């Protein structure tokens, strides 16, 4: 390969690398309010730079349920407290507890330009 082609290839690669195209980045949650994620010794991401997916936040979902509760007993032997169950039906709200906590290891996508990061998931321990 000629020196001119090598030099041209290096210029092109340097230009592409300088663009800071989308990349996968790993970090550790250092603070929740405000949210801060440490990527390495020098880089601490602030809340303004971070976007979250549902995989790393608490959120509510509506679900339809249709089942019976488990049998329960109770009380003093009175017939009103005898073992029983009942229907549990309808559309119900449930809270999904996926929120970040201090120390969580997270996987992020660094956006083009390197100023915004999307936290896509956290390490399962």
From TrEMBL:
Q: Which domain of life is it from?
A: Bacteria
Pfam families per the UniProt record, alphabetical: DUF2577
Matching entries from InterPro entries are given as: DUF2577 (IPR022555)
Instruction: Kindly provide the name given to this protein in its UniProt entry.
Output: DUF2577 domain-containing protein
Q: Which organism does this record belong to?
A: Solibacillus faecavium
